[in-house]
Amino acid sequence: MKVLRTPDSRFENLPDYPFTPRYADIDGLRMHHVDEGDGELVLLLHGEPSWSYLYRHMIPPLVDAGFRVVAPDLVGFGRSDKLRDISEYSYEQHVSWMRLFIEALNLDSINLFCQDWGSLIGLRVAAENEQRFARIALGNGGLPTGDQQMPRAFLNWQRFAKYSPYFPIGKIIQKGTVADLDDAVVAAYDAPFPSSKYKAAARAFPLLVPTQPDDPASEANRAAWQVFKQWEKPFMTMFSDKDPITRGGERAWQQTVPGARGVRHTTIHGAGHFLQEEKGPQLAEAMIDFIGNTQPEAV
Q1: pLDDT number for residue 153
Q2: Which of 8, 31, 53, 298 minimizes the number of CB atoms within 10 Å of its CB?
Q3: Which residues are identified as catalytic?
């Protein structure tokens, strides 16, 4: 297993990202995370091809409101170690790494916010470790089983990830937002990836999404859905109105999860797929309201 580590110099002087880097050893790999504040725990899980930099506008208001905020970089992203070979990444392995990370930090009574692949991983971990989670907020994500028809925009994205000789991480983030990003912000998303050999995880993730009923992850995801059909803990959706891939996906969760009933769900207007980049403070305020106005046992 060839492991790559992005030089620390790549992360110097990033705009609006003053957080102290912290590391945990997970299955022999160094996993980076932000860990700020004290109080009730909020866990922020990023997706593809971003990293914890995506949460830089959510972390300060949550900390100021009295929460402890943990935002890890998934293996293969951010300041976490990266595997050189794309074949060494699997959906199940990412779920295992996140479970081990939660256990290593002994995270409990978790208020989860997850988006994109952060939700494919985070929802699985929550369903399989219910006792550690108090509430879930889902933004622009889901838990596909391969039984649903995927949007054309996603299938095009899969082909791009597999075949394109050029995979510009920062520009991909830019295309997933409505607003124009500063060049320094685009560069910050590129920072973890000095060359193409560091991008195996980013290339792998789109191909690991279950799109057929017999996908290796389909059965485990179906089992997770069965858990969520009985999930009484508070469950909120925060989807944006400008995401061509996940727009409308919140309805299935609102209709299926018992804990979603009676919760004030939020539509984020004027944001694309990476809604944390464009509407971070609004999302933080919605999380604060969600936690403050629901009880973890039930709505």
Answers
A1: 86
A2: 8
A3: 116, 243, 273
